[in-house]
Design a protein that fits this description.
heterodimer; A: alpha+beta; ATP Synthase, domain 1; Single alpha-helices involved in coiled-coils or other helix-helix interfaces; 2 domains; five-stranded mixed beta sheet; 10 strands; 31% helix; elongated; B: alpha/beta; Helix Hairpins; Pyruvate Kinase, Chain: A, domain 1; 7 helices
C-alpha cells in the first residue's frame, strides 16, 4: 500500500517540482484542500496562495498562482501559471509590486469603477505580492 | 592591378568579418541548445492540460463556447486574423524571407476573405508596413533575446482572444504563422489555427511526449469535480490558446537560432574562401614584382 504521494508541480515553462511527499495542502478555489495518499480522484481549480507539503517532519511551502490540481490516489499534479519556492522569491520586487498595486487601487477608488478589469488585475497583483512577502518572510 | 597594400588591407578586413560571424555562430549555437531545452521543458504542462481537458470534455456534452465551437453568427464575417511570427533581427539566412513569402502566398490564395495581420517581430513589421495590407497590431521585442517571457505571451493571447470575441471588427478565425523547428538546418513555415480551438478532438493529444503512463485507461478515472466541469473548461480554454502561442514562439526562437547558426557557419566558410583567394592573389602580385625587379637588375647589368 502506497503511503506516499508523488507531487508534481508544473508551470508552462518547466517542471518545478517532482518528489514523493506524505501530505499536500493546496489552495483550492473554494477553500484549502488537504490531501493524503489514497485520496479519491479529484480535479479542482486553484487560487493564488501557498501550497504546503510534508516529507517526514519537514514542511515546505511553494507559492502558486492560479491553475489546477489533479489528484489521483498516488499522485498530485499541480498545473499553475506561477510556482516559486521561498528562496526564489525576490522580496524587494514583491514589496515594490505591493506598493504599486496599493497605489493603483487607492487611485482607482477615487476615479470610480470605470475600469473594472484594471481594478481586478491590480487586486490580484496585490494578493500575489502579499503572499510572496509572507512566504519569503517565513525563512 | 591592386597593390599589395590594398590586398593586405582587404585580407585583414575579411578576417575581421570572419571573427564576427564565427562569434555569432557560437552564440547562436549555445542559445539554440537552451531554446530546445525550453521547448522540451514546456511539454509536461501541455500533456497534463490536454489530459485534464480531455476528461472534462467527456463531462461537458453540448458545451458551447465561441472559443471552441466557433461564432454562431447569422453570417460569416468574412474576415480572419493571421498572426505572423518573424524574428526581430536579421542575419539568419532565409528565415524571415521564407515567412514573408509564405504570408504573401497566403494573402494571395485567400482572396475571398479579408486578412488582418498581427505582426510579431520587427522584420515582419518592416516589410508589411510598406505593403497594402491591414495591420491590426505590431509586437516588437517578444522574441528578441532568444527567450520568451510568459507574461508577454499572456498579454498577446488575451489581445488575440479579445479580437476574436469582439463585435467591433468581427473575425471568423485566428491563425498563426511561424517557422517550425525541424532541425538546425531546416525550418518549415507552418500555419496553425488558434481559434476556434481545433486540437481538442477527444483523446487526441498530439503533444503527449511528457508522460508515457498516461494511457487510455486513465482518461476513464472518475474524478470528483470541486467546480463544475464547465467552469474548468471555461478557465482552461484561453490557457490552451496561450499554450499554443507560447509553443509557436518557442519553436520560432529555436528556428531563428538554428537558421542563424547555419547562416553564420556558411558565412565563416565563405570568408575562409575569400581569404584564401586574396592571399593567393597577393602572393602572385608580390612574386610578379620581385620577378620584375630581378629582370630590371639583370638587364641593367647586361647593358653595361
Amino acid at each position: 500500500m502506497a503511503d506516499k504521494l508523488n507531487l508534481e508541480i508544473i508551470t508552462p515553462e518547466r517542471r518545478v517540482f517532482s518528489e514523493a511527499v506524505e501530505e499536500v495542502v493546496v489552495p483550492g478555489l473554494d477553500g484549502e484542500l488537504g490531501i493524503l495518499p489514497q485520496h479519491t480522484p479529484l480535479i479542482s481549480q486553484l487560487k493564488t496562495g501557498l501550497l504546503t507539503y510534508r516529507q517526514g517532519s519537514d514542511r515546505q511551502s511553494i507559492h502558486v498562482s492560479g491553475g489546477f490540481v489533479e489528484v489521483l490516489p498516488d499522485r498530485v499534479s499541480v498545473l499553475s501559471d506561477v510556482a516559486e519556492r521561498p528562496e526564489e522569491i525576490d522580496v524587494e520586487r514583491a514589496r515594490r509590486a505591493r506598493e504599486r498595486a496599493e497605489k493603483r487601487l487607492s487611485g482607482q477608488g477615487l476615479a470610480g469603477d470605470g475600469d473594472d478589469i484594471d481594478f481586478r488585475r491590480a487586486e490580484l497583483k496585490l494578493q500575489r505580492a502579499m503572499i510572496r512577502i509572507q512566504l519569503a518572510g517565513r525563512e | 592591378m591592386p597593390s599589395i597594400q590594398d590586398l593586405r588591407r582587404r585580407v585583414r578586413a575579411v578576417k575581421n568579418m570572419r571573427q564576427i560571424t564565427k562569434a555569432m555562430k557560437m552564440v547562436a549555437a549555445a542559445r539554440l541548445r537552451r531554446a530546445q531545452e525550453r521547448v522540451t521543458a514546456a511539454r509536461p504542462y501541455t500533456a497534463k492540460m490536454m489530459q485534464i481537458l480531455g476528461d472534462a470534455a467527456h463531462r461537458t456534452v453540448d458545451y458551447r463556447d465561441p472559443l471552441l465551437t466557433g461564432h454562431e453568427r447569422d453570417q460569416a464575417a468574412g474576415r480572419i486574423i493571421l498572426a505572423l511570427v518573424t524574428a526581430d533581427k536579421g542575419l539568419c539566412g532565409a528565415f524571415n524571407t521564407n515567412l514573408i513569402k509564405t504570408t504573401q502566398d497566403y494573402l494571395r490564395t485567400h482572396t475571398g476573405v479579408e486578412v488582418d495581420l498581427v505582426l510579431i517581430g520587427r522584420k515582419g513589421v518592416d516589410v508589411f508596413r510598406r505593403r497594402p495590407v491591414n495591420i491590426r497590431r505590431e509586437h516588437i521585442g517578444v522574441t528578441g533575446t532568444g527567450k520568451v517571457a510568459l507574461s508577454d505571451v499572456t498579454a498577446l493571447t488575451r489581445q488575440l482572444i479579445d479580437d476574436y470575441l469582439s463585435d467591433e471588427r468581427p473575425v471568423d478565425a485566428v491563425f498563426i504563422l511561424y517557422n517550425e523547428f525541424k532541425s538546425a538546418l531546416s525550418q518549415q513555415p507552418v500555419v496553425e489555427q488558434l481559434l476556434p480551438i481545433r486540437r481538442l478532438a477527444l483523446g487526441d493529444s498530439n503533444d503527449d511526449a511528457g508522460g508515457s503512463k498516461e494511457a487510455a485507461g486513465e482518461s476513464l478515472t472518475d474524478y470528483l469535480y470541486e467546480q463544475p466541469a464547465t467552469q474548468i473548461f471555461t478557465e482552461l480554454l484561453p490557457k490552451l490558446v496561450e499554450n499554443q502561442v507560447y509553443h509557436a514562439l518557442l519553436e520560432s526562437v529555436a528556428s531563428e537560432l538554428g537558421a542563424r547558426m547555419t547562416a553564420m557557419e556558411s558565412a565563416s566558410k565563405n570568408a575562409n574562401d575569400v581569404i584564401e583567394r586574396l592571399t593567393l592573389n597577393m602572393n602572385r602580385v608580390r612574386q610578379a614584382r620581385i620577378t620584375r625587379e630581378i629582370i630590371e637588375v639583370v638587364s641593367g647589368a647586361e647593358a653595361l
